[in-house]
Every structure is written in C-alpha cells, then in structure tokens.
C-alpha cells in the first residue's frame, strides 16, 4: 500500500553538535505498509517518528530514497492543531481539513454534522478556533480526521491528549476503525495502546529501524535497550 525504500532525511542546522551543520534524522529507512494493517512506531523522543509520518503523508520530501504509493490512495496525518486557521470557525476548519484530506466539497459538507456531534463542541463549533482551548482544538482535529475517510490514517500521539472521557471515546472510535478495513500507522509512547491496537511494530532509534515484527517481541527488545 505504501513503501519507504532506503529513505534518508537530513535537516540543516546551526547547532555545532551535528555533522557540519547537517542533522541526519532518518538513515536508510526501508519498510512496507500493508493494506488493512495497523503498524505501530515506537522509539525515544527525537528519533524521527514524526518526521517519518510527515514523509509518509507527503508533507516532507526525503533527502534521498523513494516513497512508493499506490496511485489514488489518500493518506492523512492526524496530529494536534495541524493546519487550523485561527480566524475561521470550527465548522469552516473542519470543512477545509476534510477537503485537504481529499474529500470533494459536497462530500465534506455531509461530514460536518457528524463532526460537530462527535467532537461535542456544541455552539463553539461556530466560533473561531482562536477562542478554543487546546483540548477543544484536539477534539476538532481528531474528529475531522477520523470522520473524513482516507485510505491511510497516520496517527501521531493523538490518543494521549484531551480529557479522560474524550480520550476513551476517541480510543474506542479508533479501535472500531482499526477493526474495520482502515490502514493505520500509529506513533505512540503508550505500550498499552501499541499492544492493544497494532498488528506489527517498528522500533526506530537514531533514525534507523532497529527491529520490526510482532508487538510483544519488539517491545521487549525496546525495553531491554533502555536498561
Ligand atoms: N524542521 C526541522 N528542522 C530541523 N530539525 C528538525 C525539524 N523537525 C524535526 N527536527 C529534528 O529531527 C529530529 C526528529 O524529530 P521528530 O519530531 O521526528 O522526533 P520524534 O521521534 O517524533 O520525537 P518525539 O517522540 O519527541 O515526538 C529531532 O532531533 C528534531 O529536533
């Protein structure tokens, strides 16, 4: 469904600690994402997990290597507050996001009432997003991406935000999608969520894939590396 082949990504940096002003974030990463699977990505802070999702979403281009996708397949990155326009209402932001994720305007309009209901934003749905708390923004972002139908859902740590009640509801909705035919890539620091939701896990360290396979086995290796 999607394949990264020998993908490397460098950022230019002014920090002297990196190699001649170049920070090698991903180094020759290769893997395939199969249809209908939920692939977890684990690793310490700053090892390149979000960068990998952004490459898979087409937001960042790799410095070298290839990202191969099936023609016509859509991928959407689900992350907090990405791309919200602060002066537009929740409704208009949801419409815009749904269209950016590949829906036609007509299709996107049909999602709006469901997004309003699931996000429980009530009358605030009509207010500018700049008046929202961060929890309200995350409800809007999560719900819009969840209810807009994309082929590959790229989920960045999103289930760890919001209040406990909404988190529970979001987790259940995500599980329902995963149990259906949704293909998901899921970055999380929660071992519980990874074990619960994923079919397969990649462990990333220093920009490389250290292990890939069954969640229990990869989590054991990851934990052992930290001892
Ligand atoms: N636009 C950028 N310019 C320069 N460096 C960047 C940029 N974006 C990310 N980085 C660096 O790339 C590295 C990987 O960042 P990334 O966000 O992918 O890590 P992560 O594994 O998702 O971390 P976390 O678990 O903390 O969310 C970090 O060292 C970060 O500082």
Automatic annotation (TrEMBL):
GO terms for cellular component: membrane. Residues 2-227 form the ABC transporter domain. The keyword Nucleotide-binding applies. SUPFAM superfamilies: P-loop containing nucleoside triphosphate hydrolases. InterPro entries: AAA+_ATPase, ABC_transporter-like_ATP-bd, ABC_transpr_TagH-like, Bact_Polysacc_Export_ATP-bd, P-loop_NTPase. The keyword Cell division does not apply. One of its GO terms (molecular function) is ATP hydrolysis activity. Keywords: ATP-binding, Nucleotide-binding, Transport. Coiled coil: none annotated. Belongs to the ABC transporter superfamily. This is ABC transporter ATP-binding protein. It comes from Mangrovimicrobium sediminis.
């Amino acid at each position: 469904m999607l394949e990264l082949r020998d993908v490397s990504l460098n950022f230019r940096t002014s920090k002297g600690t990196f190699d001649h002003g170049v920070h090698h974030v991903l180094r020759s990463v290769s893997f395939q994402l199969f249809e209908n699977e939920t692939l977890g990505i684990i690793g310490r802070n700053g090892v390149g997990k979000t960068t990998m999702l952004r490459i898979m979403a087409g937001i960042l281009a790799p410095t070298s290597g290839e990202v191969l996708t099936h023609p016509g397949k859509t991928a959407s990155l689900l992350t907090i507050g990405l791309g919200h326009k602060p002066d537009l209402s929740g409704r208009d932001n949801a419409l815009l996001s749904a269209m950016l994720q590949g829906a036609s305007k007509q299709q996107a309009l049909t999602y709006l009432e469901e997004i309003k209901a699931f996000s429980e934003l009530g009358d605030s749905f009509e207010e500018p997003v700049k008046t929202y708390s961060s929890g309200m923004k995350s409800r809007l972002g999560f719900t819009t991406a969840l209810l807009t139908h994309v082929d590959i859902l790229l989920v960045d740590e999103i289930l760890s935000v919001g209040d406990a009640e909404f988190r529970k509801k979001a987790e259940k909705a995500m599980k329902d999608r995963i149990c259906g035919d949704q293909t998901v890539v899921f970055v999380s620091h929660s071992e519980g969520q990874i074990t619960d939701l994923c079919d397969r896990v990649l462990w990333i360290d220093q920009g490389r894939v250290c292990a890939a396979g069954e969640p229990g086995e990869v989590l054991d290796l990851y934990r052992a590396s930290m001892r």
